[in-house]
Amino acid sequence: MDDPRLTPARPDLAAKYLEGKVKAARFVTGEEFCVVDAIAPLREAPAADAPLLTQALKGERVTIYDRNGEGFAWGQLNSDGYVGWIPDAALGKPTAAPTHKVTALRTFAFPAASIKLPPVDTLSMGALLTVAREDGAFAVTREGWYLPRRHVGALEAMEKDFVAVAEKFVGTPYLWGGKSSLGIDCSGLVQIALNAAGTGCPRDSDMQRDGLGRALNPSETQTLQRGDLIFWNGHVAIVRDGDTIVHANAHHMATEIENTLEAIARIKAAGSEVKSIKRLA
Question: What is the pLDDT of residue 281?
């Protein structure tokens, strides 16, 4: 059965590419839009208080299949395929293709070449930009925003160690569905970190467990390596070294570094056993 989280299909309407594969009253081609807000919520239903499924960052592309006429659009993120409702106001027509991305944990966009001016916006790691030119210490985007050059990198620039990226988020508040340094969940942390290192990654922990790396056999789990992923039901953590993990978790309500054995014991006491340990390479 197709995963509804990744399948733009409802009884009344579905994506054209699913015609013949799913049942729906009508099929539509969809239209590509660009996220213009710094962070846009993708929700379970077209309401501001509906559960948060994930977030889209500035510059991400979204294929929209439906609008409810009350401020929400229903579509699919082009990056990881997630389906949900996104505020109409967060979307704009795509213009030039992105050339750069935010590589810092977060950065400010200024209206001119001065850090003394009030910022126009705050952008998060992974946000996509179209840089038109450079002006001293700034990269100037197509819309005329000035971002510190040292916080911006070319699209092809990749981090060497995704675990080091995840470690930068230590202290970030836990947010279900979040994927920025303002709030992040366990699988969002893995996705953002792996993407920064050039590795594609599904959004949710069960998708990551099924789609990333190879499962370690019991003898291999005695010596965990940096970058291994530990999976429980509904949770994932990243191995830092032989003794510690880094993970966004609701127990601490933050991204924390924790002793591996202590975390496993704590989570077991709460009712969940380790389901799998995966190695990416």
Answer: 82
> Distance between CA atoms of 258 and 228, rounded to whole angstroms?
15
Contact (Cβ atoms closer than 8 angstroms) between residue 100 and residue 152: yes
Q: Tell me the pLDDT tens digit for each residue of 35-66.
A: 999 999 999 999 999 999 999 999 999 999 99
Q: Which of 218, 225, 267 is CA-nearest to residue 244?
A: 225
Cα separation, 63 vs 86, in Å, equals: 11
User: Per-residue DSSP letters for 114-130?
Assistant: -TTSPPSEEEETT-EE-
Angle at 131 between CA 129 and CA 134, to 5 degrees: 140
In whole angstroms, give the CA distance from residue 71 to residue 91: 11
SS3 call for 167: helix
Q: By C-alpha distance, which of 122, 99, 128 is closest to 109?
A: 122
Please report where in the chains the tokens 């929400």 appear, as a residue: 72
- Tokens at residue 62, please? 């979204």
Inter-residue contact 117 to 156 (CB < 8 Å): no
What are 211-253's pLDDT values in tens digits?
A: 999 999 999 989 999 999 999 999 999 999 999 999 999 999 9
Cα Dmax for the chain: 58
Distance, CA of 7 to CA of 5 (rounded, Å):
6
pLDDT class of 172 with cuts at 50, 70, 90: very high
C-alpha closest to that of 255 among 187, 195, 194: 187
Q: Which residues does residue 174 pair with via DSSP β-bridges, in sequence order?
A: 184
User: How far apart are the C-alpha atoms of 117 and 110, rounded to whole Å?
Assistant: 7
